[in-house]
Every structure is written in structure tokens, then in C-alpha cells.
């Protein structure tokens, strides 16, 4: 007999105890930590501040190469590896029923470094796509950027900067400003950058090699940057960030690849509010 305290004493036989233990083991998967980004174990030693020291005089191509080298070998801070759920729903136009879904996003923008010394990094859309593909992720749409902002726990006021906007030192300075605003608070953060996004506008652009950006929300929820495809893909400045989204969307309890969701006229409005939702990724290769 096994004796456990419970409003006095509760007696369990050995068989009953083994049954309870078995049930507990079965329930453990439901209690496991949230979905994790499939990033390799960190083996490098380059910190966030070290990255900006090394990259200070780099051009966009050199900076992209360094970020790719570090990110793809796992040099991403631990907190960024755990996805955060964003829940949403739409009304089915055919049946009138509500369709519920959840997708999983990184809690902050792409960053390099260790637990204690990390920094947000700014890269081109093509480099962002390569990292997204490597980590089973995709880049958000305009609607998703809005929904992520609504779901965020931390929403600092945007801080525009005006000189040497595409220089690496200004990118570092902007990261430090955001950290001053964040004040160590933890959780999903949004409104601090313009997002590199996917958009049907890109495939309908007459100009070649375009990238789309959107966001940088003010406190009232309005974005500073409307959806814009005027930049060539290699343009990047301090204000652009990369938010990674896990590529499987949970729709009514079923996992569906984001391309299938965007390609389904019935489901695409979960992720996209544009007239055309048929641009899924940047063609870096």
C-alpha cells in the first residue's frame, strides 16, 4: 500500500499507483513547452555587440553573408527559438461558420548572439528568405503584421532616425534604443520595425527584383509604412526587421502548410487581406 496525504490520508494500492503513473506519462506531451524553432545548437562565440563591431564597415552584401553564416550555424539567442502563438478567426463566406486558426511566430525580430549579449540584425529580403527556408519558416504578410501587433504584449513607440540610415552603426544604435524602451520586459514585441513581407504586389511589379515592406506601428495601431514595393531587394536600413513564422498553420485543429492556406480561396483571408495572395517567397536561388 502507498500512503499519500490528502485531506487526511489517501491509500493507493501498488496497481492503482502504477495506473496513475501511466496516465501521467501519457499526459506529459500535452504539457510540453511551446513549439520551438528548428535551429542548430549554438556553437559559435560571436555576440551581438561583437557582431556589430565586426560588421561596422561592411556593405549590405558582406553583412548579409555574416548574418547567414552565424544564423544558419545556430548563433541565435535562446529566447528567440521559442515560437509564440497568434490566434485568429474568420467567417466562412459560404457556410457562415467561423474558421479558427493559430500560427506561431518568433517573439522578436531576427537576432544574433548569446543569451546575455544579443542584437537585432538587418538583412535583405533574399537573405531573410534563405534563413526562413532553413528554419521551416516563412515571412509574414501585411495582415499578419497587423495581427501580430494586436497580439503583442510589448508595443514601444517607433523611433525614426534620419542620417546614415543604411549604415551598420545606425542599425546597432537603433537596437540599443529599442532595448532602452523595452526595459527588460519579456514577451511578444511588435511595432519596433518595418517588416519584410510577402505580397501579391511583388509578382505584379513591372520593376524587377523588388522587396515588400510594411508596418512600424504607432501606439494608435496605425503603421508608419504602408505596403511598399519601391525598394530593390538588396536595399536594407536600420528600420527593417525580419520576423520568422512557422510554416505550418493550425486550422481547426489540422496542420496545413502556409502555401496551401494562401492558395485556398476559403482560407487565405486568415493570413492575407490583399486582392492577390499568391506570392509565397523570395527567389534567392
Account of the 3D structure:
- The chain has 285 residues and is an alpha+beta fold.
- It folds into two domains: 1-32; 36-270, no CATH class.
- Helices cover 27% and strands 23% of the residues.
- It is built from eight helices and 14 strands.
- The protein has helices at residues 14-27, 48-54, 60-72, 125-134, 142-151, 168-182, 200-203, 258-262; strands at residues 2-5, 9-12, 84-91, 98-105, 111-113, 118-120, 137-138, 194-197, 210-217, 223-232, 240-241, 245-246, 248-251, 254-257.
- The strands form five sheets. Strands 3-4-13-14 form a four-stranded antiparallel sheet. Strands 10-9-8-11 form a four-stranded mixed sheet, with helices on one face.
- Helix 3 (60-72) runs parallel beside helix 4.
- It is globular and about 55 Å long.
- 35% of the residues are buried.
The helix/strand class is alpha+beta
Number of domains: 2
**Overall pLDDT confidence:** 90
Instruction: Report the total helices.
Output: 8
> Which radius of gyration do the C-alpha atoms yield?
22 Å
- Write the element-wise H/E pattern from the N-terminal end onward: EEHHHEEEEHEHHEHEEEEEEH
The 3D shape can be described as: globular
The biggest sheet amounts to: 4 strands, antiparallel
Helix content: 25-40%
- How do the strands of the widest beta sheet line up side by side? 3-4-13-14
The poorly predicted ranges are 1-12, 19-33
Distance linking N and C termini: 66 Å
For the secondary structure, the number of strands is: 14
How much beta, percentage-wise?
15-25%
